[in-house]
Design a protein that fits this description.
Blueprint: E1 2-5, E2 8-11, H1 15-26, E3 31-34, H2 39-43, E4 50-51, H3 53-61, H4 66-71, E5 73-75, E6 78-82, E7 85-89, H5 91-94, E8 100-102, H6 105-118, E9 123-124, E10 128-133, E11 141-146, E12 149-154, E13 157-160, H7 168-171, E14 178-193, E15 203-206, E16 212-216, E17 222-228, H8 239-250, E18 262-276, E19 279-280, E20 283-285, E21 291-292, H9 300-321, H10 325-328, H11 330-352, H12 360-375, H13 377-388
Parallel strand pairs: 1-12, 2-3, 2-13, 3-9, 6-15, 13-20
Antiparallel strand pairs: 4-8, 5-8, 6-7, 10-11, 11-12, 14-17, 14-18, 15-16, 16-17, 18-21, 19-20
Helix pairs in contact: 1-6, 1-9, 9-11, 12-13
The structure holds flavin-adenine dinucleotide.
Length: about 400
């Protein structure tokens, strides 16, 4: 058994773990990042792509913004379609000039790994048998296996940034945590296609056959989604059927959907999940390890970044002064934003998806909501300020 020591042991090299390592380095705090997957895998995992203004600002302020400024696509509005109508929500006009930026999660991960390696920060990929112990003590330990050797990492603090299926959350005794789960009666079938987007701004469509979203990743690559059943089999969806369905659900007179080669496709469940508290002793959970939101509000990646921003500041204050006040308030500070995002994501999901059974009451309510959004500046402003992300402080 080989033993190493660091200040903060970070489990998981997704956006939460990597951003935390980056922010801690800027504060002069040492960390070691442990990741079960390979570097190649995490740098090519296609997931989110909408960055809130606050995420973009943080990347710029901390020296991660070069490629983001060159390649990120700044969007100042989104379009909502239903019943053959289209309504643009002018996000920036309604939300004090704030905007969203389209930049793939895998690009954020690449930038963070490059920054980590440029600063000689330790990061171990393809680790196995990760187990946390001593989180109730002042010297917690992460045990793991790497390159055929059993290792132990002694830390002051462990950050559990290992996603929804990681091991960190389970290290908190069941009696010490409350979990809130909500499953939605639909899932998203998403494709990445090598075809120029048919729109300059994202299109969210409500249709009786189900929700559809036209997003994008670059001027050459489109990202599109359709609502499917949670137990849908991807084999039943050859590319031609997906394009046909997208054409119907996104359809608008005079508008044309470009189709082309599908590079990747998959089905993602829609769920809401929160664990409270997000900390126990010397273990702090961040990102998907602590909460999941349905993708409709584009909040998952942004919440992960917001958590570690709070955690990095709290750790910096603790190391500098010995005052644990901000660390103690970590859960409360994060949960305010997390539950706001849960509410926004659930509201957007309920407004835009077709519910099984096509209950007439629900359909009429959805139309009333969409009509209100189209005619009330107050309703549109509320959507805009949530969509671009609430300011940090
Ligand atoms: C299929 C899919 C599609 C999504 N699409 C969208 C979208 O369109 N829009 C949006 O806003 N959000 C989307 N999300 C959500 C968004 O991607 C996440 O919220 C975001 O990745 C959270 O970052 P994270 O760092 O907390 O977790 P993750 O990105 O999950 O990172 C956790 C890391 O920990 C590693 N790990 C797991 N277990 C261990 C262990 N035991 N030891 C060490 N490492 C471990 C994992 O390999 C992973 O690299 C999607 C998520 C999924 C799964």
């Amino acid at each position: 058994m080989k033993t190493d020591r660091t200040q903060v042991g970070i489990v998981g090299a997704g956006p939460a773990g990597l951003m935390l390592a980056h922010l801690l380095r800027l504060e002069g705090i040492e960390s070691v990042v442990l990741e079960t997957r390979s570097r190649e895998y995490v740098e090519h995992r296609v997931r989110a792509g909408v960055l809130e203004q606050g995420t973009v600002d943080l990347m710029n302020e901390t020296g991660l913004g070069d490629r983001l400024r060159r390649e990120g696509l700044v969007h100042r509005g989104i379009e909502i379609r239903w019943d053959g109508r289209a309504k643009r929500i002018p996000l920036s006009d309604l939300a004090g000039g704030r905007a969203i930026t389209i930049y793939g999660q895998q690009e954020v991960v690449k930038d963070l790994i490059a920054a980590r390696l440029a600063g000689d920060g330790p990061i171990h990929f393809e680790v196995g048998s990760v187990a946390l112990s001593g989180i109730d003590t002042n010297a917690p330990i992460v045990r793991y296996r790497h390159e055929g050797t059993d290792r132990e990492l002694r830390c002051d603090v462990i950050a559990g940034c290992d996603g929804f299926h990681g091991v960190s959350r389970e290290a908190i005794p069941a009696t010490g945590r409350t979990e809130f789960h909500h499953e939605y009666p639909f899932a998203w079938l998403g494709i990445l296609a090598a075809v120029p987007p048919s729109t300059e701004e994202l299109i969210y469509a409500h249709h009786e056959r189900g929700f559809a979203l036209h997003s994008l990743r670059s001027p050459e690559v489109s990202r599109l989604y359709i609502q499917v059943d949670p137990d849908e089999d991807i084999e039943r969806w050859p590319d031609a059927r997906i394009w046909d369905e997208l054409r119907i659900r996104l359809g608008l007179e005079g508008w044309h959907l470009n189709d082309g080669p599908v590079i990747e496709k998959g089905i993602a469940a829609m769920r809401s999940f929160v664990v409270e508290p997000m900390q126990h002793g010397r273990l702090f959970l961040a990102g998907d390890a602590a909460h999941i939101v349905p993708a409709t509000g584009a909040k998952g990646l942004n919440l992960a970044v917001a958590d570690v921003r709070v955690l990095a500041r709290a750790l910096a204050a603790w190391y500098a002064t010995g005052d644990a006040g901000r660390l103690d308030r970590y859960t409360a500070e994060c949960l305010r934003r997390v539950w706001r995002a849960q509410d926004f994501s659930a509201t957007m999901s309920a407004m835009l998806h077709a519910y099984p059974g096509h209950d007439e009451f629900t359909q009429r309510r959805q139309r009333a909501q969409l009509d209100y959004l189209a005619t009330s500046e107050a309703a549109a402003r509320s959507l805009a300020e949530n969509y671009v992300g609430l300011p940090f402080d």
